[in-house]
Amino acid sequence: MKRWIAVILAVVLVLALAGCGSDDKDTGGDEAKTYKIAMVMDSSISDGGWGTACYSALVSASEDLGWEVAYTDSIKQSDYVSSIESYCQLGYDMIFLPGNQYSDATVQVAADYPDIAFVVLNGAETLPTDNIVSILPNADQIGYIAGVFAGLVDETNVIGFIGGMELDTTLAKLAGYTAAAQAINPDIEVLTAYAGSFDDSAKGMELAKSMIDQKADVFFGDASAVDSGARQAIDTANGDGAITIYDIGQPADILGQNPCVIGSVVTDNAGMLKICMQDLIDGNFGNKVVYGSLENDCLSLGALNEDLLSAEVREQIQDYVAQIEAGTFPPKK
Fold first, then answer.
1. What is the mean pLDDT of residues 164-170?
2. CATH class of domain segment(s) 36-138+269-292
3. 271-280 per-position pLDDT tens digit
4. Where are the beta strands (DSSP E) in the chain?
5. I want to staple 198 with a disulfide (CB 3.0 to 4.6 A). Which of 26, 68, 164, 280 is the partner?
6. 2.30.33.40, 3.90.180.10, 3.40.50.2300, 3.30.360.10: which CATH number matches 139-266+300-326?
7. pTM of the entire structure?
8. CA separation (Å) from 228 to 143, 208, 239?
């Protein structure tokens, strides 16, 4: 009899332990999945421009959601595919590609890794698939804001634009920059040059110096480290005297980085990237474009240089930005 009682008690204990394990699972006892995201880019994360801004966005979004982060920077175009593939092979959940130039490599790799999510910043509207999403800041608005700065502070009727490559987004920023500046001052001429690179700061210095020699006194760039080189040339031209040649930063708020910076157009890439990351967690990733604009606060005006911009000009800039958000500036032709 005692033997049967012992057997019954043992069975009850086993069932009780099994029940406890089941309850623990139902209430979240299992450890939650830790997602991993990697960024691959040809710029440097310490370039003080595009690369730095994109890395900051990656870190910010990942910290908010508790994701692990890795990156590979300063790579050559010939290494795009192999660099992306390496993170896929390591089992990363998402690969972040900060530029349209990575689109072809992304499409190639994504086809071989359908369970991995790929996010392309400035990717074309036609790029998204089941496992590819484009993040697309409003390039028109970015250009318009920069053009407002230029139109209000230019004194020579000549302003400069330096691009890395002739990408669709770069061309759209140039068009917006030109339209807004000329809407304020129709006599403005826009000098344009492309470095053919995003990491050649020496080329940026060369191009900016050439434009300064042609009387350009306001600059806006879309070329990462090339922009940093341009700002060095501007600071050199200004020398130790009064600052009369200016630069407009983007996509991060870089006021104070160089004496010539009068303000920035700030893109919240972290906000847009975070939307993509949350979609992956929720099972809603793919087949979409995530837009960033003044309207959804993923685009904004950075801090203004109070030493170089009068209170009147600062107020005008803010008024024009409000008109850009409302869709009333620049006037449609």
1. 91
2. alpha beta
3. 999 999 999 9
4. 36-40, 68-72, 94-97, 117-121, 132-137, 158-163, 189-194, 218-222, 246-249, 261-267, 288-292, 299-301
5. 164
6. 3.40.50.2300
7. 0.77
8. 18, 10, 17
Decide: 50 and 264 in contact? Cβ < 8 Å: no
- Give the single-character DSSP code of 129: B
Q: What is the DSSP letter of 89?
A: H
Answer yes or no: are the C-beta atoms of 237 and 257 closer than 8 Å.
no
Task: Label residues 256-293 b or e (16+ Cβ within 10 Å = b).
Answer: ebbbbbbbbbbbbbbbbbbbbbebbeeeebbeebbbbb
User: Which tens digit of pLDDT belongs to each residue from 215-244?
Assistant: 999 999 999 889 999 999 999 999 999 999
Burial of 198 (0-12, 13-18, 19+ CB in 10 A): buried
157 token code pair: 């009727």
What's the distance, Cα to Cα, between the start and end of the chain in Å? 99
List the Cα angle 325/220/58 in 5-degree steps.
70
Q: What distance in Å separates the CA atoms of residue 92 and residue 71, rounded to the nearest whole number?
A: 11
* C-alpha span between 29 and 167 (Å, rounded): 49
Enter the DSSP assignment of 33: P
